[in-house]
Amino acid sequence: MLKSYLFEPIVYITITLIFLSAPAKAQNTKSEQLIKIETSLGDMVIKLYNETPAHRDNMIKLCKEGFYKDQLFHRVIKDFMIQGGDPHSTGAEKGQRLGTGSPGYTVPAEFHKGLIHKKGALAAARKGDSVNPEQASNGSQFYLVQGRVLTPEEIDILTQRGMASFTEETAEIYMTLGGTPHLDGAYTVFGEVVEGLEIIDAIALSPIDAYNRPIEDVIYSISLIK
Questions:
Q1: Where are the beta strands (DSSP E) in 125-216?
Q2: For residue 128, what are the domain limits?
């Protein structure tokens, strides 16, 4: 039986489904592309980073194709993240376990030290390191970081244990805005919410079932703004 295509903060969950690699071609865009996520709990505007052109262009392609229409946020964990992008979620029955879907390809990892898992970050889900040593991203599944605000003591502990590294600037971000720093450098961050950050909080409060799927469907669609 297939396991969900998910990520975990420490222990990675693997699946038996194998995805073909078909990286998107980079585009030379000077301004940052904006996308709109319209959800049943409110809307968000996200800018896609030009520093991650493969992920940016893949998202643009999928939006143009109408791929992200009436899908569900199928995995929600309060103080961590909300996850979507599984095409199997469109029209899924109540209680159906989701998380194995993709467009049939992966996208090569694009890690940048300056692109971190702060609150509101858009990042790509992927299979675990044991079956995905190159840390390639699922072709469509993504998550939006909620995380939480860290204390200076927690920053020190994560640093001492080698679970995260910080600059003075990123430490300040995690101690004020919040996020999930232990994911930095392991999952590709390719955008951030610029409007509607509170919608992540609203979705994260959704009652969930045993598979972390909201009991009441949180439906969304994604489109290009410009």
A1: 137-138, 142-145, 189-195
A2: 32-224
